[in-house]
Amino acid sequence: MSEKSSRQFSQFIAGIVVVAVIVICSFFYFNSGKISFIETAPDLQKGASLRLVFVGDIMLSRSIETQMVRHNDWSYPFEHVGDFLKKADLTFGNFENPVSTRGNNVGSIYSFRVDPQALQGVTDSGFDVLSIANNHIWDWGPEAFADTISLLQANGVTPVGGGNDFGTVHTPVVKDVKGTKIAFLAYTRLVPGFLSRVDSVPAVAYPTVEQIAFDVGVAKTMADLVVVSFHWGDEYQTQHNAEQQEWAHAAIDAGADLVVGHHPHVVQEVERYNTRSGFPRGSATMTL
What's the whole-model pTM score? Predict the structure, then answer.
């Protein structure tokens, strides 16, 4: 990593945890009126070169979609956080529902799918990169999966972790943010096994220690900073499990700068791991 990139990363990392916690609350309490998101958000611009925001699971189906229809407002879930999110230089989240009008329900009683109009809130809020490597992206099968990718791309949002084939989903997404190249990778094992094979078409990125190390190694040749996202862990458990630690450490040991997790529906710990010469090489791993 270059000295310039090290300085930039160390400047924004301190504020990420607070931002992430604030934003994840918005998706559970978006209409509670009890949290003043903009006023309580930390001022990351002070002394920072880059302002990156990471949020957890974004699920716009079921009762959330009902509320959007009732209010005739497809940006309604982001009412209290949209302005804050779009002020970031880059905003990342986990998009946990297919967006489509097609497909067949192949999931469970908890299957998600949302009308394409719901992307208005996503784009209005300034999301740049969304992980689609999660346990609900296949709920409505291949047609809805394909629609999700094409519709996100058509609306200026880059999906990561899911795509047409194995090679695509293990290729880093690289964004140039104010002259700093940031590579993103995303993984989950919470998908049907047939999506994770080398010959899978389509595919979702499945994590193994070896694959993570290889992908991060490639990403390091393409970017100044490497961010790895995992959809992992046990729901409603505030402590990480051994698998999460193994994968996170593998990513950091391979050269990743930040690991961000999601799925448990609660905030888990933040770990600072593998410092180097005073600079936090793998400054933090967190789960939203």
Answer: 0.83
